[in-house]
Model the fold of this input.
Amino acid sequence: MSSVPRRIDDVAELGTDEARRSWLATVWEFSRRRPLGAIGGAIVLLNLIVAVGANVLAPYDPVATDYGAMLARPSAAHWLGTDAYGRDVLSRIVYGSRTAMLVGFSCAVLGATIGAVIGVGSAYFGGRVDLIVQRVMDIFLAFPLIILALAVVSILGTGIWNVILAITVPMIPRAALVSRSSALAIREMPYVDAARAAGFRHVRIILRHMLPNVMAPYLIMLTAYLGQAILLEASLSFLGLGVAEPTAAWGLMLRGAAVQFAESAPWMAIFPGLAISLAVFAFNLFGDSLRDALDPRLRTQ
Amino acid sequence: MTKYVVKRLLLMIPTLVGVAVLVFFLMRVVPGDVVELRFAGESSFASKENLDKERARLGLDKPLWKQFVDWMGGIARLDFGVSMWTGAPIIEEIRLRFALSLQLAIMSTLIAVLLAIPLGVLAALKQDTWVDYAVRIFSIAGLATPSFWLGIVFILMLLIVFKWLPPMVYTPFWVNPVQNLAQLIWPALAVGYRYSAVAMRMTRSAMLEVLREDYIRTARAKGLWEKLILSRHALKNAMLPVLTVIALEFAFLMGGLVVTEQVFNLNGLGLLFVESVAHRDYTLTQALVLLVAAVFIFVNFLVELAYAWIDPRIKFR
Done:
């Protein structure tokens, strides 16, 4: 203990330095012990880079039609071929990752967060509030995910923001269920009693004392929902109820002409599907390893 | 026991009424109605009076609460009414599609179970070896692959490699089993692979948990044959959560195969649902949602009963 911090700034600096080192160390430790998770994380990162840099990376304009090159086979000019309008499949996949990431992250963050607030609040207040909230959630849970999403899209119409809402709505009760069961145990903790005794308001106790302690299930849900949201968006777009043409979206690319010309131009049907699978695969791989790392029951060995 | 079962059955009613209220009002919030859509093509008939007359015939001119009460009253008498689009009785509309959806759900579940349990057990026994990694990658890939896309790939492969397309018209199993299976095995494989992933992960983690229990160590310590330990002690106890997952997936399969049915041109409940929403066929959509919800809630209840029956530590409350 030779370097005792003198000023308040020193303490702050020491803290951040420590935090930075331990953050890097955590990433390193995670990659070493869970190589599959690290591979998943790397693909997710790559996907994000592609989404952000789509305008730089895509060789063509994703909506530009070229009637001279309709249904062209993969070649040097069009690496993954073109579709029925002569649009470059690779460029549409690159831009499609933007749609997928936007939908995936928005839905997962919104769904898991709103669900967590409802679930934790329901557990915290208990009694009649809990009972009513649980019954309402039961009603929503009885709908299959895709059916609820379909209903919401029918009401609001298509378009990316409506799709995000349609996918978020059915996620909320599922997230609430998980966070509630984690929060029930935390409610009994002495520090929650202490906070209540100190006279803090309910909102503050829920946000400051309870929510941070359901972080592990929250993160696990978040990564699981990312993949699910991308899949749901693809399904809705495939049905013609999601993102509308000519926006580039993976599910939309599999619709119509892709099936019609599947025999003569299989690249139209194969590559967008591969893009969906790879993205969801990476999120799941990463989420799985994250769960193993965070779940204390599996941590013992 | 009887008291518990009756109590749980009665508790389903408020949830189902909630579902009914939700779907009833959701449908009426959707812009447009069945009358407008039906007359959309024939503008000469679409005068205001004609539309209103048709609405009156379907009972759409009554106040909402009256429509809801009439509908609920009908259901209490097990009368679901007629489809607003086709005019056929709803029971008939659903009966036509139910056999197909049920068969597809059963076949998919069978495929999922046959894949999931052996592979899940194998992965647990060889934890953290390449076998475990391979099984996990296989299962995560299953979760990641949209089953409708897998369906497209299957059709494509059959077409390109074997120059053969599965039959496009549904034949009931008892009429021609070969024709029937030739059509349904492909969607069942595509859906079953995806659903096996969930069950496989559950099997693996449940086995891992059970294998760490004291009674397994005791069984090993007394020199019991390893195969016997696995089948009689470990697998039996690990099966509970796996059964739950499989049962719940099955319930979802009954109504949730909207997209897969589209790809394989199957006229099942999922497609019927999409069509009924597109036609604003209120009565049919409402009946379908209620049916799917009822199946889901009932399967949930059966799972809970099975839990208490298999595991004597769980008490009926």
About this structure: The interface with chain B takes residues 36, 135-136, 138-140, 142-147, 150-151, 154-155, 227, 231, 234-235, 238-239, 251, 254, 258-259, 262-263, 266, 269-270, 273, 276-281, 283-285, 288, 297-298 of chain A (CB under 8 Å). Residues 1-15 of chain A have pLDDT under 50 and may be disordered. The first helix of chain A runs from residue 8 to 33. The CA atoms of residues 213 and 259 of chain A lie 48 Å apart.
